[in-house]
């Protein structure tokens, strides 16, 4: 290249022979450049090919290798287990049932383990037949509108895509659902059907638990028939009565560094002092309450609007999402349990799993104090399940009380009826049971081992992130009722939220929270009409929807009809967000505001009555305007009545039979044009 440069310089300096030299020079340069370019291209081409053709096998293998560590098969072989019980759990109940089934196994000379599908490679199901007398049981809860729980999402995706041969797999499924929901037990039904399609052998029929009825009884009834079927299949017999086997051992810490003690954190120690995103169920964000105001003007109930500050959290949400909050139990209940059991609640302890191979080392974060465990980690307000009563029975010194507890925990019809009336219908929590059975005084550590975890509570977000990017709004009603025993029971989360007052310096204004994504979404096109039906606190997501439609309109977007059907008891008592709704209507964002006051006249008027009254307009919006329909609130009555009203409207104006109208509405649901955000 230097020579070529020199030649170029010479060409410029020597004008007399310029033409001859130029001819000669250009031909030499052309040849050289062509050769150089060809050489470079050839080198690049082969170098590239070489890189593509050499497979990077060592890297692939090193990435795949750790899968062995997540193999439940290897773990079962190592620990001598032959039954694995997987659970898809959102609120902890399916996990609890899985633990009970895995514990049952020892009565039949078998060994079980409960397993979170999120922690293992489920493609290993095809290898389960390598273990003698092996069985996979699935306790699968259905969440929301027929969705898998968060921890079962990967398993569900794998089942949908898998073409595995599961012909050697023996299985059984128990589903946890709620009949008030449209897609009752969808996940349990799907897992049961899909495993059979993949060649697996069902050894006992699908169990369908209904939380709207008596989920505990459904589970016990299924379980008492399930084990005889297992015995028959494997040719084994029960080795004896159900016995109480401790899963955890108590370690009391007398000399402990308090910086190593959990004080309510859900995951990482000191995570509330040193907050680090991303925030989720195991790492909630401590949001400050900046507003907490009563919404209703009268009546016995307390309806409230709270605003949580999420500044600097990097938390993002969309209208229709849910906010999960971790509440704390009432300190007076905690103190009463401590007093009745004669315990120093400030004792620092750990409950350590006796099974060293278990992934679950403790039932809740340890070390901690009994006070912290009973306040932040354990459910002390719901009626305990029968397995808790069975385990506690041994500690009742009065023979009559012990027999009563054992009877309620049995599968006999008389025992089930007694449990239903004395515990479930009377809404007796653990404190009430201890109070009503004076001889029952269990060790507090065993009680802490048996009680289920206190779960996060979900609320539909009542704001739009377009308008409030640094805040999440909640609309809730405090739960408070008198039980058949004359006790006053209070909802854990709502009464705890009620006590949260805006205060910049005190921890009393802090709420541990995270956001859970939802499918409850506004249409992609702002011009699409929306029909929103949400009586009571069911209005929450629609406040966010209307805020967003107002924001879109301000941005110059064409916004379609925004129609709201809202209902409350009395206009002057519990008409929520009255001023805000009036303003939105005045601004032309809220096209129609239809409000049903159920108790302001002799005959009760509900949202479905207003829908019928405006049926022609409803049909026009749905049929011609391709409107999206949203229903939020009570699943048991309101959502069902509203859906039946839509069947009637479609049948009448669409000239369809009842089955055709039902099919029409179901298709709207499939297309995402009829969405539900309901609870029971």
From TrEMBL:
A cellular component annotation (GO) from this entry: cytosol
Origin: domain of life: Eukaryota
EC number: 1.6.2.4
The FAD-binding FR-type domain, residue ranges: 282-523
Pfam families tied to this protein: FAD_binding_1 (PF00667), Flavodoxin_1 (PF00258), NAD_binding_1 (PF00175)
UniProt KW GTP-binding keyword: no
Record GO terms (molecular function): flavin adenine dinucleotide binding; FMN binding; NADPH-hemoprotein reductase activity
GO-annotated biological processes: response to hormone
PROSITE patterns named in the record: FAD_FR (PS51384), FLAVODOXIN_LIKE (PS50902)
Root EC class: oxidoreductase
Domain Flavodoxin-like: 83-227
Spans traversing the lipid bilayer: 25-46
Keyword set, alphabetical order: Endoplasmic reticulum, FAD, Flavoprotein, FMN, Membrane, NADP, Oxidoreductase, Transmembrane, Transmembrane helix
Cofactors: FAD; FMN
HAMAP family per UniProt: NCPR (MF_03212)
Protein name: NADPH--hemoprotein reductase
Organism, as annotated: Pedionomus torquatus (Plains-wanderer)
């Amino acid at each position: 290249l230097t020579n070529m440069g020199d030649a170029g310089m010479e060409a410029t300096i020597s004008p007399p022979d310029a033409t001859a030299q130029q001819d000669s020079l250009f031909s030499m340069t052309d040849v050289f450049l062509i050769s150089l370019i060809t050489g470079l291209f050839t080198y690049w081409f082969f170098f590239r090919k070489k890189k593509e053709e050499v497979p990077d096998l060592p890297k692939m293998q090193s990435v795949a290798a750790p899968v062995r560590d997540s193999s439940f098969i290897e773990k079962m072989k190592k620990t001598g287990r032959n039954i694995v019980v997987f659970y898809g759990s959102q609120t902890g109940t399916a996990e609890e049932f899985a633990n009970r089934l895995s514990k049952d196994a020892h009565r039949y000379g078998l060994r079980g383990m409960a397993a979170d599908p999120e922690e293992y490679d489920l493609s290993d199901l095809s290898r389960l037949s390598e273990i003698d007398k092996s069985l996979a049981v699935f306790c699968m809860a259905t969440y929301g509108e027929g969705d898998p729980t968060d921890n079962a999402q990967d398993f569900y995706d794998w089942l949908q895509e898998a073409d595995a041969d599961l012909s050697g797999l023996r299985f059984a499924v128990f589903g946890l659902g709620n009949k008030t929901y449209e897609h009752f037990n969808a996940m349990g039904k799907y897992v049961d059907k899909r495993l059979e399609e993949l060649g697996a052998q069902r050894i006992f029929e699908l169990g369908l638990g209904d939380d709207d009825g008596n989920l505990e009884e459904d589970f016990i009834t299924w379980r008492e028939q399930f084990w005889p079927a297992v015995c028959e299949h494997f040719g084994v017999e029960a080795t004896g009565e159900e016995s109480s086997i401790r899963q955890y051992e108590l370690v009391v810490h007398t000399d402990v560094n308090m910086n190593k003690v959990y004080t309510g954190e859900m995951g990482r120690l000191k995570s509330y002092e040193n907050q680090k995103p991303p925030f989720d169920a195991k790492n909630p964000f401590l949001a400050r309450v900046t507003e907490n105001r009563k919404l209703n003007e009268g009546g016995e109930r307390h309806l409230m609007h709270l605003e949580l500050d999420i500044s600097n959290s990097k938390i993002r949400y969309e209208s229709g999402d849910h906010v999960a909050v971790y509440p704390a139990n009432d300190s007076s209940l905690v103190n009463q349990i401590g007093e009745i059991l004669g315990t120093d609640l400030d004792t620092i302890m750990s409950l350590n799993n006796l099974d060293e191979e278990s992934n679950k080392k403790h039932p809740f974060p340890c070390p901690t104090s009994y006070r912290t465990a009973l306040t932040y980690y354990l459910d002390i307000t719901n009626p305990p399940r029968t397995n808790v009563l069975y385990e506690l029975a041994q500690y009742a010194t009065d023979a009559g009380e012990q027999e009563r507890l054992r009877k309620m925990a049995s599968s006999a019809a008389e025992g089930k009826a007694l449990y239903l009336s004395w515990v479930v219908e009377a809404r007796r929590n653990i404190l009430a049971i201890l109070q009503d059975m004076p001889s029952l005084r269990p060790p507090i550590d065993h009680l802490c081992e048996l009680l289920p975890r206190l779960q996060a509570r979900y609320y539909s977000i009542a704001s739009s992130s377009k308008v409030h990017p640094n805040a999440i709004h909640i609309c809730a009603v405090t739960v408070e009722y008198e039980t058949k025993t004359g006790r006053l029971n209070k909802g854990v989360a709502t009464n705890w939220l009620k006590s949260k007052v805006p205060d910049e310096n005190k921890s009393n204004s802090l709420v541990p929270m995270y956001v859970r994504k939802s499918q409850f979404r506004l249409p992609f096109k702002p011009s699409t009409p929306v029909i929103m039906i949400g009586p009571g606190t069911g209005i929450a997501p629609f406040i966010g929807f209307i805020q967003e439609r107002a924001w879109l309109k301000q941005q110059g977007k064409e916004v379609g009809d925004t129609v709201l059907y809202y209902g409350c008891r009395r206009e002057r008592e519990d008409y929520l967000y009255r001023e805000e709704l009036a303003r939105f209507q005045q601004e032309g964002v809220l096209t129609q505001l239809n409000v049903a006051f159920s108790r302001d006249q002799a005959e009760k008027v509900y949202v479905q009555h207003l829908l019928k009254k405006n049926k022609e307009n409803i049909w026009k919006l749905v049929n011609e305007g391709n409107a999206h329909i949203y229903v939020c609130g009570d699943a048991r009555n309101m959502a069902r009545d509203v859906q039946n009203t839509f069947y009637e409207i479609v049948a009448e104006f669409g000239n369809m039979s009842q089955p055709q109208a039902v099919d029409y509405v179901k298709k709207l649901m499939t297309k995402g044009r009829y969405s539900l955000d309901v609870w029971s």
